[in-house]
Amino acid sequence: MLLLIADGNCFHNCKALLPHGRTFPFAIFYSDRGDVQNGSAEIFFRKVKFWKEDGQEDAPPVFNVDGVNYFHVKVVGLLFVATTRVNMSPSFALELLQRIARVIKDYLGVLNEDTLRKNFVLVYELLDEVIDFGYVQTTSTELLKSYVFNEPIVVDAPRLPPLEPAAIFSARAKRMPGIAVTKSVIATEPGGRNREEIFVDVIEKISITFSSSGYILTSEIDGTIQMKSYLTGNPEIRLALNDDLAIGRGQGPIYGYRSSSGSGAVILDDCNFHESVRLDSFDVDRTLSLIPPDGEFPVMNYRMTQEFRPPFRINVLIEEAGPLKAEVILKIYAEFGSSVTANTVKVQMPLPKYTTRVNFELNPGAVGETTDFKEANKKLEWSLKKIVGASEHTLRAKLTFSQESHGNITKESGPVSMTFTIPMYNVSRLQVKYLQISKKSRVSEPYRWVRYVTQANSYVARI
Predict the structure, then answer these.
(1) Where in the sequence is the domain holding 294, given as residue range(s)?
(2) Are 96 and 4 in contact (CB under 8 A)?
(3) pLDDT tens digits for range 11-65
(4) Is residue 412 part of a domain?
(5) In 1, 58, 147, 177, which residue has its Cα 20 to 30 A from 412's Cα atom?
(6) Does 407 share its domain with 337?
């Protein structure tokens, strides 16, 4: 799916495309100034679908075609895209697209082709209020409620597939994903009443680079605490974090804090808070106070470079098996506990340019594992549906070359990259100790859902 936004100075078109095997997908078209041709959506779709430039299979987030700049981001399988003919900040365009996707999801409850088809009038109205003659007015769900009056047509959520691989949880454990909540913040449930609920997600994206011997060269965590509230009356929320949380090494009320436990402290390099957050007691007991606005929003963003235990270890071995043959052995070790499961794990490894054929061999009895050799860019791909903690997985790949190597095969291969999602697991040890609601509903006790998710931002092992 694609959402395209633009104006004469910044943005000028807005469309939504959903590639589901059709020649040209479903589209919503919105034009504020109209100085980009109507066929720009089809140009973008064909360019992205058949991208082969620079030896890459995926199009970059920003590219130019015939004088038109295209910016795009991917959100839950949908492409949100902006076009412009003038020079502008790519970061501004990409951030705006992310915010528009969030606003639409707040109103519709879930993003997919069905919800867009049924609510295209509401989507048009939202875009018209967010952007006026190409200039951004607001991306606040709370403020937009004063100007947007169409009611969303809610799609039956139980029949929808989960929006994220991490959205699959055990019903027995009563864990509910916050960012995959399929409820609109505008629509009410049958009977005119909303269920009193509040969702909190601690999402951490980790970046790690391993040396050829397996040592960690660089490591970093980009984290965020996301909140989505369905509480009536806008009650005040108190969110308590670790007592041993330390932020930075400078001076000031919220910096330089050290726990009496010393080395056990969770030390963040820096952080920032949503405008609704009050830090009156944060220095004393690490508690955040806020009145949550409508929609999903980040309570706190943080960055951490303190050493942490990586969730996976990657081991790579390349052996020559003749003048035109070699063997690659890839091993993955899950360093987390057996009660945790990683979902949709994908491993990629570039091979020498003269590789012509690859034969794969998996562990006996391997389930949910697939392999592929992308001949166009000479890349090995290994996908695992899930990995249970404290387990080990091995892949053997026998390579056939078109010519004899006159150099070091190891130097012409790699590095190995890895992507994954691990629900109910975080590497920083940042915890939500409790979630307190100042004014509770008289009818029922509000439901509180807290989830932890770890994702790979950049997980690379050198060979």
Answers:
(1) 165-195+228-300+429-452
(2) no
(3) 444 444 444 444 445 566 666 666 677 777 788 888 888 887 766 777 889 998 8
(4) yes
(5) 58
(6) yes
